[in-house]
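batch job 7 of whatever, protein = Exocyst complex component
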Amino acid sequence: MADSCEALGAVPEHERILQEIESTDTACVGPTLRSVYDDQPNAHKKFMEKLDACIRNHDKEIEKMCNFHHQGFVDAITELLKVRTDAEKLKVQVTDTNRRFQDAGKEVIVQTEDIIQCRIQQRNITTVVEKLQLCLPVLEMYSKLKEQMDAKRYYSALKTMEQLENVYFPRVSQYRFCQLMIENLPKLREDIKEVSMSDLKDFLESIRKHSDKIGETAMKQAQHQKTFSVTLQKQSNMKFGKNVYINHDRIPEERNEITLKHVLEDEDENEEEVLTVQDLVDFSPVYRCLHIYSVLGDEETFENYYRKQRKKQARLVLQPQSSMHETVDGYRRYFTQIVGFFVVEDHILHVTQGLVTRAYTDELWNMALSKIIAVLRAHSSYCTDPDLVLELKNLIVIFADTLQGYGFPVNRLFDLLFEIRDQYNETLLKKWAGVFRDIFEEDNYSPIPIVSEEEYKIIISKFPFQDPDLEKQSFPKKLPMSQSVPHIYIQVKEFIYASLKFSESLHRSSTEIDDMLRKSTNLLLTRTLSSCLLNLIRKPHIGLTELVQIIINTAHLEQACKYLEDFITNITNISQETVHTTRLYGLSTFKDARHAAEGEIYTKLNQKIDEFVQLADYDWTMSEPDGRASGYLMDLINFLRSIFQVFTHLPGKVAQTACMSACQHLSTSLLQMLLDSELKQISMGAVQQFNLDVIQCELFASSEPVPGFQGDTLQLAFIDLRQLLDLFMVWDWSTYLADYGQPTSKYLRVNPNTALTLLEKMKDTSKKNNIFTQFRKNDRDKQKLIETVVKQLRSLVNGMSQHT
């Protein structure tokens, strides 16, 4: 029962499977068939049975269907057989047509192949044309590059290379010729760098050779501009009534206008001739090389090389020649080369970007300035010619003004000029020392004779001399000073002019110039002129008459100092009342010279007295005097009278001092003659003769050879000698010994030591004549008295030494 139930249940399932098999695609039958084997046991067998039954049913249906359509099938076969004959005919016709068509198409095929070949060639030609259109510009540009290289247009060649690399080569990079070109470009660039660097070297060598010409042109232009400005300023000063001194005279307004006119005419004439640095130097190699290295991206290398080479050239330019200090041309060549160097650098600074910078030029200038100052300081020290120093100063001023116009600081150069100014003053002082010596050597040291009014006016115009009494005298007459005085005054003014020349163009105020002039003039007066005067005074051949004239000359020069101060004031327009105005020291200079001359007068006068005294020829053993004064002394007194008459032109005190000094020296010399250690014996007769000479001296002193002495002042010069001689002549030893040390003593000026020395000389004379005197009682008493006095005098001398 159970099996039957299962069988009944399986039948519908098998039908379903069969329906699925019939209705589904063949590829999807697998899962359906798998379900047959996955069911209950014996399901396969049952399914096969069911399948066979289904097949049988279908066969039956097919058989029914075939039976139903059999007649139609037979009819169709019959018709098909009929068509067979027609089909064979058609096949024959088609085969024939095909054969004929094939025969006809062979020619077409040949022509078609020709057409295809032509199409291929046409396509290839088009491709070649297209490629050539790409390559031709490259070749043209490369050819252009070669032409530019041959024409030395290197900057354009580098630009062409850039275009080839950036635009043209990428289009044809696949071609071998392009690779060759690409490989050749670095070599071309190196060639361009080498050629441009060679051009730069030639340029550097060229500007080194032409730097002096460049500098000379720049300095001429600066000097011309300065001259024009100065002329305009002078004209402006004249319009406002200012004093302008050039050289020795004030420039009149008409002369100033004429000068300005000439300067303006020269300015117009030279306008067309003004050359610039571009006119003298071709800077294209620098620009070209800079552009080339900029394009090559190696601008820093070029800048470093250019600066390094220029620094080397700067060191060469700054190195002076060893003989530069000998001529002004040596200095001028040195300055023009330096100016040319920095003018070129300034031009490069302004026309290029980055090749040189302001910091670089400032550093280079500071280095150069230190070297220039050191060189000028060293070489200028060798200059002994003031004219050369002045020309050097003018060159330095033009040099500084020129470079200042190009923006270089030059304050240190003007500071150097102050050092050179001191040296200039030293050379001037040396030169004027020679001038003064020549003036003194040519002077005759006698008053200037004037024979006419014209001659008098000429001298007065040169030297400020005023004497109302002299003006009233008729011609001929004499000026008190000698010829050297106006000459010295003129030369001092010349010195001031020479010193002023150096102060011009130093950009200093009138006060500073005034101070410089006064200081340099003071040096001239206090050092140079004073030294020349002192040397003159001490010269052996200068006699008393010349010394007297020198004293008179110094007095007049001293009076002229105020006129020198007025002269400086007129030049600088700085009043003497200004607080800081330096005063001239001429007064003290001439006073010192006068004192030295006075001292020399005293010395020479004493020397002359010594010469006369040396002529003395006393017989110190004479028994009786000659009864008249010695001849040498009378000659000496006559000489003194004539000399003191010359002294009347001297100031009173000088003549009085000279007279007193002469008398004192004469008294001392006579006393030293008595006390001379070589003189061993003196007789009373010799003392009496000596007394006669002293009396003549006293008479000379009392005759007042020089006016101005009060009473017996001059005679007091012989008081020591007079008291000593009176003591021995009167033989008043008792009074001397008794009153010794008393202020009222008659022989107050007689020194015991002096009296003892002279007494011993007379004692020796007494001993020598002892054989004749021992029989005379008076002589023996006198000898005893001498011995007694000698003992007492010795005791006085010993007492004085113990007290001392």
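notes: Confidence is low (pLDDT under 50) at residues 1-8, 240-272, 770-775.
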